[in-house]
Amino acid sequence: MNNGQTDYFRELRILIDQYFGENDLKEISFDLGVEYESLEGDAKPIKVISLIKHLARRGRLQELILLLTKERGQVNWPVIPEPAQQKEDMRTTSFLSRQGLRDEQYQIALHWDGETRMREFDLSGRNLSRMNLAGADLAGAKLRGADLNESDLSKADLSGADLHRANLWNANLSEARLLDRPNLFHADLNEANLRRVKMFAANLHGAHLRHADLSEAELPVDLSRADLSAANLRGADLSGAYKLMYATLSGAEYDTNTQWPIGFDPQELGAILIDD
């Protein structure tokens, strides 16, 4: 967060705390559809900070300012800094260089608290290749056909995301979360780093995972028609995988720590036991 943003948030926090009591703050939260009790902290000043952060992450600060102006019109409320003037955050400028200034909600999500929050955004078909989205909140995002090749998505939350036919070639998804039935139908994950990734009920039907690193990954997922040729499955938990007999495992490497469904013989499908 640059100095302009820091000064803006400080001024906004002080003014809200000065001109609104706790009951007023509860009413503002209600009008904005925010559950007051769910905001962090017990004291009003902490609740103010939490409310500002909550709305900033979702690109809703303008709604807050309009409401504050309506309730306390005599106060000189600070103007939200123009995203175009905030060029010190390189992650944002690299995103804008591809998307242009028209996607204001994306700018705000990338700017306000120094974190990347793009939950439920529609990014279908967009060019997000080689982006730094490490730790990003992309839960529920629509990424159908998006180009994410060589992007850093390590520790990102992609739970429930739609990655149908997305290009994730050589992407870094190490320790990412793909829970709540994410859709990776026919996604290109060739050579991707999926080490220690956590998936649950993901649809990987027809996904391309050749030479992918799935070591120590948790994979209770649909792998029917998935291509795991030469993939690294050392220490992976595939005990909950289903339709695995319809996957391609030719040349995939596993070790004694790899867990398979009961009765499943990976060598019958060409997997290779590596005894290090």
* Uncertain stretches: 83-109
CATH-derived topology of the largest domain: Pectate Lyase C-like
Q: How big a fraction of the residues is strand?
A: under 5%
| Percentage of residues in helical conformation | 25-40%
CATH class group of the largest domain? Mainly Beta
User: Terminal Cα separation, in Å?
Assistant: 47 Å
Strand count, sense and closure of the main sheet? 2 strands, parallel
Q: What is the arithmetic mean of pLDDT?
A: 85
Q: Count the helices. How many?
A: 6
Q: What is the name of the CATH superfamily of the largest domain?
A: E3 ubiquitin-protein ligase SopA
Shape: elongated
- Give me the secondary-structure category: mainly alpha
Q: Name the strands of the widest sheet in spatial order.
A: 1-2
Cα gyration radius (Å): 23 Å
Oligomeric form: single chain
- From the coordinates shown, what is the CATH architecture of the largest domain? 3 Solenoid
Order of helical and strand elements: HHHHHHEEEE
Number of domains: 2
The total count of strands amounts to 4
Describe this structure in words.
The strands form two sheets. The chain has a two-stranded parallel ribbon with strand order 1-2. A two-stranded parallel sheet has the order 3-4. It has two domains: 3-71; 118-276, E3 ubiquitin-protein ligase SopA (Pectate Lyase C-like). α1 crosses α3 (44-57). The chain is built from six helices and four strands. With 276 residues, it is mainly alpha-helical. The protein has helices spanning 3-19, 22-31, 44-57, 61-71, 90-99, 104-111, and strands at residues 177-178, 198-199, 253-254, 272-273. The radius of gyration is 23 Å and the shape is elongated.
